[in-house]
Every structure is written in structure tokens, then in C-alpha cells.
């Protein structure tokens, strides 16, 4: 079942899973969700952390009081990530960042079902369903793509930073997702940031957050992407487009695992794995003074 006030999102998710032969119900609010769990023992419930008419905490309690074998996957946007983290502590299986892709959701569901099978001592899923490229439907039998699969599998087991290089459209974000969702951090957030999409001033606020009153329009505290990704992975796409100033702040996070929000002197600790990607030649960027050499070696 999917619980979400967004009718379009519910329709997209339901259409996909019904299209592959799965049974899925939908609820636009807390009251409808409660009625559904009274009559149906769901394997998986996907829910926004913001539910009209109720709270995610109460919904999780109600679900587990009826059927403790139901797995709950919550999703949140940047403004509600703290509620999402609390939901995981309250018993949710995992958390997704909005907007999420159908393959990303599908992989979370596969992991939950695999866990459910293990929990009930049913035969585990075949190895092919746990393959690192299955979540994102990588297709290929060539020696080159098989080598990519092998490297992803190896890298996923480590906690090292990773740089992915290649032309636009070659699937760098898919590889980053496969690394995260097959790592020990897979139950925590996978947060994506396109560094080329925002000007420097906005990118700093997006990455590190800001305090109320830090600048005109900052009406309340907002946590940044690094704080949202705590315990998980942050994917910095087009990392070569960051200014040298922002690069220096990223380097500090890598070295000292801490940062300050914009407008604050308070240090925030950060346990985040960084996966970055670029379509540019970073060696040439370093030679031209556009990319920090020390950051390159930390990211790589």
C-alpha cells in the first residue's frame, strides 16, 4: 500500500506495480490507511512522513500492532527529513528522499521482501536478484559492462569516497545508486545534488543548510543535504562545476567530518560517504587551477 496525499505520485507507483503483476492499494490520508490495515495484512507499506489527519509515528504503531511482519518504507523531502529519521528509529525499514525514482523504490521493496523472507526462514532470493545492477535494471553482457558490475560490487563493500567519470548520459547516477544501495549504508538516505544546477551562493546553502535570519528570506532554520545524508551517502553530480570556495568546504567535510550551516558558528558533525561524478577531465581542471588537487585525491 502507498500512503500519500499526492494523487499523481500514488498513480505512478500503483500503475508501475500493477503493470508488473503486483497487488497494491492506495490511501490519501491517515484515516483511509487505518481502515485498510484493519482488513489487509500488507507485506510493504510506503508512506510519506507527512500524512493528512495523523502522524507517521502513530501510523507505524498501528501497522505493527496489527501485523509486526509488515515493513514500512517512509519518504520525505528536505523539509521533513528529521521526521523521516525519527520514523526509522520508530521502526520503519528504510527512508527515501523525494523526489525518488520508481527503480529506487523498487529496490527498497526488493530488499524489504528479501529481509522478510529471511525473517520467516523462507528460502532466500536467488543470487541474481541480489546482483548489484538489478536495482537499476542495468542491461548488458559485454566484458566491459560486466567489469563495471564487478567494480560496483567491490566498491560498495567499502566506505571510501568514489569519483565516477564519463560523458553525460552514461549512467553515472545509476552506478552511484547501485553502490549506495548495496553498501552497509543502504538503509540510510541516498541524497543527490546537481552542483551545476545552482549558483555558488545557493549551492552552499543547499549543501550545508542555513540558520534563521542568515540572509534575506531565511525565515527558518533549514538543514542541508550533508545533514540530511548523515549516516548515508551524498551524490555530488557535476562536482567539477563547484567553485574553489565550495570545494574547500567539501574538503573540510572529508577531512574533519564536520561543517557549519550558513549564518552559524555551531559545528555540525557529519558521517557521510561522498560519491561524486563529472563529465570533465579533472586532471586538466587541476592543471588550469579550476579544481583542487587535494580534494581530487580525497574524493578518489
TrEMBL record:
Annotated InterPro entries: AAA+_ATPase, CheY-like_superfamily, P-loop_NTPase, Sig_transdc_resp-reg_receiver, Sigma_54_int, Sigma_54_int_dom_ATP-bd_1, Sigma_54_int_dom_ATP-bd_2
Task: For this entry, list what GO says about its biological process.
Answer: phosphorelay signal transduction system; regulation of DNA-templated transcription
Nucleotidyltransferase among keywords: no
Alphabetically sorted, this entry's keywords are:
ATP-binding, Nucleotide-binding
Q: Which Pfam families match?
A: Response_reg, Sigma54_activat
Q: Which GO terms describe its molecular function?
A: ATP binding
The chain positions of domain Response regulatory read: 1-113
In Swiss-Prot or TrEMBL terms, this protein is called Sigma-54-dependent Fis family transcriptional regulator
Which species does this protein come from? marine sediment metagenome
Origin organism lineage? unclassified sequences, metagenomes, ecological metagenomes
Amino acid at each position: 500500500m502507498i500512503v500519500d496525499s499526492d494523487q499523481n505520485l500514488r498513480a505512478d507507483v500503483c500503475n508501475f506495480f500493477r503493470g508488473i503483476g503486483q497487488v497494491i492499494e492506495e490511501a490519501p490520508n491517515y484515516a483511509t490507511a487505518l481502515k485498510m490495515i484493519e482488513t489487509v495484512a500488507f507485506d510493504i507499506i510506503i508512506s510519506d512522513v507527512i500524512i493528512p489527519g495523523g502522524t507517521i509515528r502513530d501510523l507505524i504503531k498501528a501497522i505493527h500492532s496489527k501485523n509486526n511482519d509488515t515493513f514500512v518504507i517512509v519518504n520525505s523531502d528536505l523539509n521533513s527529513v528529521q521526521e523521516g529519521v525519527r520514523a526509522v528509529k520508530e521502526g520503519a525499514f528504510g527512508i527515501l528522499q523525494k523526489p525518488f525514482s520508481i527503480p529506487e523504490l523498487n529496490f527498497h521493496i526488493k530488499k524489504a521482501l528479501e529481509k522478510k523472507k529471511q525473517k520467516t526462514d523462507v528460502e532466500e532470493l536467488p543470487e541474481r536478484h541480489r546482483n548489484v545492477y538489478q536495482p537499476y535494471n542495468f542491461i548488458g553482457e559485454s566484458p566491459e559492462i560486466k567489469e563495471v558490475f564487478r567494480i560496483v560490487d567491490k566498491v560498495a563493500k567499502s566506505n571510501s569516497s568514489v569519483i565516477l567519470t564519463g560523458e553525460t548520459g552514461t549512467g553515472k547516477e545509476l552506478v552511484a545508486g547501485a553502490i549506495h544501495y548495496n553498501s552497509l549504508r543502504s538503509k540510510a538516505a541516498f541524497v543527490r545534488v546537481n552542483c551545476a544546477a545552482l549558483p555558488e551562493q545557493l549551492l552552499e546553502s543547499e549543501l550545508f543548510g542555513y540558520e534563521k535570519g542568515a540572509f534575506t528570506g531565511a525565515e527558518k532554520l533549514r538543514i542541508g543535504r550533508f545533514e540530511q545524508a548523515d549516516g548515508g551517502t551524498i551524490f555530488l553530480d557535476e562536482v567539477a562545476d563547484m567553485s574553489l570556495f565550495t570545494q574547500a568546504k567539501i574538503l573540510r567535510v572529508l577531512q574533519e567530518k564536520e561543517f557549519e550551516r550558513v549564518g552559524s558558528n555551531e559545528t555540525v558533525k557529519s558521517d557521510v560517504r561522498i560519491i561524486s561524478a563529472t563529465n570533465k577531465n579533472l586532471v586538466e581542471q587541476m592543471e588550469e587551477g579550476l579544481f583542487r588537487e587535494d580534494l581530487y585525491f580525497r574524493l578518489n
